[in-house]
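Deviation from plan, reported transparently: D-malate complex.
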Amino acid sequence: MRVTFTSRRQSAHKAEGSIELAKTKRGFDWKHKHLLTIAQLSSEEIRFLLQTAHGFSDVSTRSIKKVPALRGKVVANLFFEDSTRTRMSFHLAASRLSADVVELVAKGSSVAKGESLRDTARNIEAMGVDVIVVRHDQSGAAALLADSVNCSVINAGDGQHAHPTQGLLDAYTVAQRLGRDDFDLSGITVAIVGDIQHSRVARSNIHAMTKLGANVILVGPPTLLPSGFSQLGCELAHDFDEVLPRVDVINMLRVQFERIQSQAFPSVREYAALYGLTTQRLAQAKPNVTVMHPGPLNRGIEIESAVADGPQSTVLAQVTNGLAVRMGVLYLITRVK
Ligand code: MLT
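Because the crystal trials were delayed, the predicted structure below was used instead.
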């Protein structure tokens, strides 16, 4: 079943949870039961999703931080890889929408006894779960689950493939910071800097930013920036200092030490000297440049503390916006059968 948002449906939803779906287009047809990648979404769908998220953004500022939009639904968090922000953010987003939330802790569950991902998910679904939020170190794990269960699946990060809600919350944050309340990022240049090769955040950011109209420059050492990325419509660069004065947004990536298999750079010190964002380097950028980082931060490697905690940094705003974006995602996908 497809969901069509009519003005009548919007007013009912507004009355129910006092949510304003800002600038929602009449008759918008949201058809995705799963969120696996941003590549699956059109520009219009991304904008609609971000507008829906915007409608939820004030829930977290109220004294009673709850709306009944997902009352009676059950969301299961299946995290097979470490996470602080994403796991807690999905948990809180579901709770704020009044869903029941269950958490699988892989250590101590039947996964530790060798149960397959598919079997684990099907057993959890058999308990009446409506949405599975999955994080896994294997690329494709979320798509495998979506093929194996009848409920909705949200990809909370699969290997180095995709982290769609991070791409969406980053796009939301850029739009918020630069006053683009229609989520049109045309004319904005975003540099994504660092370990591009191993980063699912980079891949999801590229899709989100380019689909919303931004120019994307990928910056990193040749060993961490395969030339194939140019096929995604990005400029590739190895000289961070040359790129800096041209950009409106700098999105710094964590060096994914856990995924790097052979020596990608001579030393951490050398990497930091060429690709770390320091106060001194930031001075070469436009005065109002926005600095982003998905976290966790390797302070002193890809980003200096003074920059991460400075006035241009959106690190904490990204976390706050992540909650609204995940509420928007949960709200939309649970309306599709
Ligand atoms: C991720 O899960 O990919 C994080 O949000 C970013 C990182 O680990 O560097």
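Residues 157, 163, 166, 200-201, 254, 294 surround D-malate (CB under 6 Å). We consider this an acceptable substitute for the interim report.
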